[in-house]
Amino acid sequence: MPKRERVMRMSVELPLWRALAGYRVMTMLYAIALGVTRYDLFVRPWVAVCYFAVLCVWTLATLPRVRNAASCTGRFLVADLTVALTGILLTPLADSHQRIAGGPTLPSIWTAGAVLAFAIKGGWRWAAVASTAVAVANLVERGHPARDTVHSLILVWVASIAIGYVVEVARASERTLARALEIEAATRERERLARDIHDGVLQVLAMVKRRGAALGGEAAELGRLAGEQEVALRTLVSGGLVPVSRVSEDALAGAVVRVVDEPDDGPVDLRQLLVPFAGARVSLAEPGAPVELPRPAARELAAAVGAALDNVSRHAGAEARAWILVEDEPDEIVVTVRDDGPGIPEGRLVQAEGEGRLGVAQSIRGRLRDLGGSAELISVPGQGTEVELKVAKDALRARGKKAERR
């Protein structure tokens, strides 16, 4: 079970749903009261009475449905709008033609509640669809586009779309705040773990390294391994690469922070994939902020870095040191792998490809070529080798869109 930590409740939608529930009840009572005052004027009062009975039962029975976004399903919204449209279209059957031109419909302003539910649930696009349907029904009921009818319909249309847009902006702000809280909670947890690790594990590894070097023999090898693990662990702790959930619960439950595994799809922080390469002889320098890439692209880029480090250990010797530098530029991602080995003799890469050794050609350049990037290898005999991997962000976005279409 993943650890779940509720940080704070900050749903901006919950008050809107409560206000909508109250609005529906009050406008239902208003419509019924308006019908009672006009009872003697109805041509077919039984039609109005039947509709008001249905409206009352429907409004009270569906109050739990307008409690939050999860309860307010698409099917309910369609049924709710159908009740409103039916009341509008039944008005000519209950009232006289002379009074229809200047009088209210049977549901009156209750209809606006059905449109507002669309706005809160689905944003301005859903609100536009619902208000357009109400406008068409009103025009059919009137028989002609009277000035007061058009004014009322435009008012409902504009107001519902505006509310829907405001809801969308509020949701985006809520997600941003939830993300910030997630990062803050993860940072606090990382700092706590770093203190515990520093006070315990790192000190023990450092002591084993010193005692092993002092004792010599097999103990020296054990001390060397302990030293490598100390460096790797210290790099991991100082890097702050704690996976953080990107899930902000729906408004019905408020925003929460959870420490969970990243999903299989979606972006991934490239730094997380490069941290395992760090060790006693491999240093990793990275930006302080996440370097987010599509997961397949990040894996390929990390695999190219791993292939470059394999070449360092294979050709530069076990004592060679390597450095990984990650740069998040505005237009591209640059990862540089540099070592202090003897370098590559001129013509050696061409000779290796002729012999069928395609480590650089396939594992490094091939991967970057598939990503729409490039791999440049610079080597000076006696001064080490530098592999520079570049991937344009535009190419990664285009690759992601192509994968989505598939």
TrEMBL record:
Q: Does Transmembrane count among this protein's keywords?
A: yes
Q: Which GO terms describe its cellular component?
A: membrane
Q: Does the keyword Transferase apply?
A: yes
Task: Tell me where on the tree of life, at the top rank, the source sits.
Answer: Bacteria
Q: Where is the Signal transduction histidine kinase subgroup 3 dimerisation and phosphoacceptor domain?
A: 189-229
Record-annotated DUF5931 domain positions: 5-178
The record lists the membrane-crossing segments as 21-39, 45-64, 76-94, 114-137, 149-167
- Annotated Pfam families: DUF5931 (PF19354), HATPase_c (PF02518), HisKA_3 (PF07730)
GO molecular function annotation: phosphorelay sensor kinase activity; protein dimerization activity
Instruction: Print the keywords alphabetically.
Output: Kinase, Membrane, Transferase, Transmembrane, Transmembrane helix, Two-component regulatory system
* Record-annotated Histidine kinase/HSP90-like ATPase domain positions: 300-392
The record's annotation in InterPro entries points to: DUF5931, HATPase_C_sf, HATPase_dom, Sensor_HK_TwoCompSys, Sig_transdc_His_kin_sub3_dim/P
Matching entries from NCBIfam families are given as: HK_morpho_MacS (NF047322)
Q: What is this protein called?
A: Histidine kinase
Q: Which organism is it from?
A: Streptomyces yokosukanensis
Q: Upper taxonomic classification of the species?
A: Bacteria, Bacillati, Actinomycetota, Actinomycetes, Kitasatosporales
